Amino acid sequence: MITVLDYGAGNVRSVINAIERAGESVHIVTKPEHISSAEKLVFPGVGNFGSMMHILNSKQYVAPLQDYLRTDRPFLGICLGLQALFETSEEAPGVNGLGFITGTVRRLQVGALSVPHIGWNGISIHKPSGLFSGLDGDEKFYFVHSYYVDPVDTDTVLTTTDYGECFTSGIQQGTITAVQFHPEKSGAAGLRIIENFIAGRTDAYMPQGCPQETRLARRIIACLDVRADDQDRLVVTKGDQYDVRAGGAVRDLGEPVDLARSYYEQGADEITFLNITAFRNCPLGDMPMLEVLKQTSRHVFVPLTIGGGIREYRDESGRLHTALDVAAEYFRSGADKISIGSDAVLIVEEFLKTGHKQGTSSIEQISKVYGSQAVVISIDPRRVYVDSPDSVPHHVISTGIEGPHGQRWCWYECTIKGGREGRPVDAVTLARTCQELGAGEILLNCIDRDGTGDGFDLELISAVKGAVSIPVIASSGAGCPEHFAELFEHTGAEAALAAGIFHRREVPIGSVKKYLEPRVEIRTR
Ligand code: 1PR
């Protein structure tokens, strides 16, 4: 029996699924005594150090946790569950951590690299551990964080990872182990670590293939646009420039859970679900989507993002659901990140009008509780040609793709409701403002390229990438493996998202990754 500490933020479902997949049963902590009586404790966490410690204190979990750690019982901390072991964090000055390890948690200083550090990076292993039994050492693991631990006693350092600086990505002290990356989101290698922890392996295992310098891989993400078809069945669909109907009927490209599982097995680094008609309905009335997530997270051990309908709304009975309520329901169902589309545009319009943050928007509220890394902004822009750079009050770029009347300038108009309504905000301003409001990543679609197979809009991607310091996922237009290579060569995008090329089985994900081999990596030093 593995006891899992769920303090109420983030996605513990994947951790539970990973443990159950390894054949163990799980007991969730609901009162302090459960920590005291645990035999093996897993503490997964995402979000903000301050709000985590606040919840641990209010639930009276701090003293039992400190006792547990002192009594030499097996412990696996994940992400914030590692940071919690330290005394303090720069993320929440004045808030005490558990203080089991002397040291502090610091913000990543990464120069020109993006923060949060999101994606698959390697580990350099500093001492033998049963946790790594069966691994080669050159595996990559999924990281998503802006802070790292800095222990005073370097003997506790189990692994380090490079990202701007060389930081401690794992610690081990007796039976206490904790890692910054997410084993439950790191495919087969991560599941192996969880199995080793459950098996209580104590052999001094030292993988031989560890890199001298670890590198972050650029990600390949499979996207599943989901909606109800005309028979009210939830299907994966795909549009051409956002039009998902062919011959009058919604294109049906398969069943969401099966397709997601198949993309995971083919090597997708992440899976994104976009509920493309959620702007019409009551998002939480859309229970099938929650069920899709729950079922997918049972078999898919890479990060899952869900978008569509993340906003405040009133249900049919008149009850108000905040955007935070909607997001919480998705996180509980297995999502690691939520993606906000239409609401982000309206929020930015309001911000540009008033010039100050209200603290009440979905972006601010969700990032405050779940951390900025959990909030993706999905932008649906459309190219608008203009005659000169100063003819509109928007971010205009010089373009190499001439407009219908020979224009050499364009801006990218943001849209809402799945491209149905254009708004007076440009994609560059939207991305920059959302970052300021707390978003952690940009998913940059492009209506002009969507479903065309003509390649990514490199001009759009470079313009947005140049305006933000958070990671950018480039989307829309992938038609062949060369398009991914071209994207990574010419823009700073950290990830590429594609749909049609995979759904139509033109090129499997595995072939795209093989074409890009050795994986396109970001220099981390
Ligand atoms: O506005 O917060 O409810 O979110 C709705 C979400 O649904 C947004 O993220 C929006 O992008 C998405 N969406 C809405 N309508 C459509 C549509 O297609 N009619 N899909 C839609 C967006 C774009 C990508 C697509 C890539 C890659 N689809 O998801 O997968 O363009 O396609 P490709 O590789 O085939 O070119 P809210």
Describe, in plain words, how this protein is organized in 3D.
- The protein is α/β, with parallel strands linked by helices and 525 residues long.
- It contains 16 helices and 32 strands.
- It has an eight-stranded mixed beta sheet. Strands 15-19-20-23-24-29-30-31 form an eight-stranded parallel barrel, surrounded by nine helices. Strands 25, 26, 27 and 28 form a four-stranded antiparallel beta sheet that branches.
- α13 links the parallel β29 and β30.
- The longest helix is centred in the middle third of the chain and has 13 residues.
- The two termini are 42 Å apart.
- The model has no long low-confidence stretch (mean pLDDT 94).
- Bound molecules: ligand 1PR.
Ordered list of secondary-structure elements with their pairings:
Layout: E1 2-4, H1 13-21, E2 26-28, H2 32-36, E3 41-45, H3 49-58, H4 62-70, E4 75-79, H5 80-83, E5 88-89, E6 103-107, E7 117-122, E8 124-125, E9 140-145, E10 147-151, E11 157-163, E12 165-173, E13 176-179, H6 187-199, E14 216-217, E15 219-228, E16 234-237, E17 245-246, E18 249-250, H7 256-266, E19 270-275, H8 287-299, E20 304-307, E21 313-314, E22 320-321, H9 323-332, E23 337-340, H10 342-354, H11 362-370, E24 375-379, E25 381-386, E26 397-398, E27 409-416, E28 421-426, H12 427-437, E29 441-444, H13 458-465, E30 472-475, H14 481-490, E31 495-498, H15 500-503, H16 509-515, E32 521-522
Parallel strand pairs: 1-2, 1-3, 3-4, 4-13, 5-6, 15-19, 15-31, 19-20, 20-23, 23-24, 24-29, 29-30, 30-31
Antiparallel strand pairs: 6-10, 7-9, 8-11, 11-12, 12-13, 14-32, 15-16, 17-18, 21-22, 25-27, 26-27, 27-28
Helix pairs in contact: 1-8, 7-8, 14-16
The chain binds ligand 1PR.
Residues 223, 225, 238-239, 242, 244, 274, 276, 278-279, 307-310, 339-343, 378, 380, 418-419, 445, 450-451, 475-478, 498-501 line the site of ligand 1PR.
